[in-house]
């Protein structure tokens, strides 16, 4: 028999999964506490045992979406790690934007959709960019060592790459689908440019 | 005697100037139509001869702020145009961030503060970034010709630079003042990296 804590954890999980499903369909801002509780198969009053408010649930979802998106991108990066630099960049960006495309409403959570103020939006974006940056910096360090092509200012390079990819990616969800492919190519060109600049600086330093 | 059209134009200007003064002090989102009319020295009902709503006034202000910020940055760039690349980048970014620092509430307008939805925020940011990008691309083209150091993908380079500066700059206004200086240095390193990458690509192409 599961312990009470494990059961509570399982219900919390069910609420998050229900909210993710509904958010993916209709966007987080259209959800109601009652609707989420119903989808999760719990009484509306039980909701409060897990989250103080819909806002708090929203924060949990931002975290969930960020974690799974980062995991996906990292896996893509590792899969092609041996086939050269260019394709690592392309694989990361394609994976990122195909997630954005397929999970538009979930990605909007990372952009602070459903959040009350532009300052919150900025903070939500800032936090996600920082996490992506830390992941990417780690991968860049490993790649630089493996290929023996040093990169200067790795954390700055990673921050610039993620800032470009994230912001252009965010812009792409407001575009008609036929214009989105061009955005991928723009991001790839710009991220490669940053990579080259970081390598050129390292080469110059000797 | 001024024509009626000229007079209307002058009153519109007075309303915009009043709203800019009040926004700089307290932020656009705290303004009321009545307060703006009073500051401009017109009757509240006259407001509607110039703007259909506070939202429309807000759009006019976004434009004003964008234009003057771009002008400032361009002038800074031209002043140091002859003293070498590094300082052009530093001058642009320092001028940009010192404007942001001194006119925090006006800069917030560009970030969509007072706007109703995150999608509007993204669009406001996107539009401004595009205008800054066009300016910068022009300046980069001129510089590349003057210094005979060609730059590949000039529009992409400009877009990446402006995206980094604008988004890190936006993050800086949520930071305590003592941490803002470090942001300037980060932006400078990243923008230089993009510049170097764009030059390295041009050099490689031959």
Question: Brief overview, please?
Answer:
The structure is a homodimer of 206-residue chains. Chain A contains eight helices and no strands.
What does this structure look like?
2 copies of one chain form a homodimer. Chain A contains 8 helices and no strands. With 206 residues, chain A is mainly α. In chain A, helix 4 (85-102) packs across helix 5. Chain A is elongated, with a radius of gyration of 20 Å. The model of chain A has no long low-confidence stretch (mean pLDDT 90).
List the helices and strands and how they pair.
2 copies of one chain form a homodimer.
Chain A (H helix, E strand, L loop, with lengths): L3 H23 L6 H8 L13 H26 L5 H18 L1 H7 L7 H30 L6 H19 L4 H29 L1
Helix pairs in contact in A: 1-2, 3-4, 3-5, 3-6, 4-5, 4-8, 6-7, 7-8
SSE arrangement of chain A, N to C = HHHHHHHH
| Coarse morphology of chain A | elongated
Regions with little confidence, pLDDT below 50 for 5+ residues of chain A: none
Distance between the termini of chain A: 63 Å
Summarize this structure as a short list of keywords or feature phrases.
homodimer; mainly alpha; 8 helices; elongated
């Amino acid at each position: 028999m599961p312990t009470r804590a494990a059961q509570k954890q399982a219900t919390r999980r069910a609420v998050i999964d229900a909210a993710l499903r509904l958010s993916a369909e209709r966007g987080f801002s259209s959800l109601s506490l009652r609707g989420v509780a119903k989808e999760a198969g719990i009484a509306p009053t039980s909701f409060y045992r897990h989250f103080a408010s819909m806002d708090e649930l929203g924060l949990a979802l931002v975290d969930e979406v960020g974690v799974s998106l980062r995991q996906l991108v990292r896996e893509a990066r590792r899969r092609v790690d041996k086939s050269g630099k260019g394709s690592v960049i392309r694989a990361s960006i394609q994976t990122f934007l195909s997630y954005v495309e397929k999970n538009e409403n979930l990605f909007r959570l990372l952009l602070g959709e459903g959040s009350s103020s532009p300052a919150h939006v900025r903070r939500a974006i800032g936090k996600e960019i920082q996490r992506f940056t830390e992941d990417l910096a780690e991968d860049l360090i490993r790649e630089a060592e493996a290929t023996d092509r040093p990169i200067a200012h790795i954390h700055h390079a990673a921050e610039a790459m993620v800032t470009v990819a994230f912001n252009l990616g965010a812009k792409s969800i407001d575009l008609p689908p036929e214009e989105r492919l061009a955005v991928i190519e723009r991001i790839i060109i710009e991220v490669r440019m940053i990579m080259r600049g970081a390598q050129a600086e390292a080469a110059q330093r000797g």
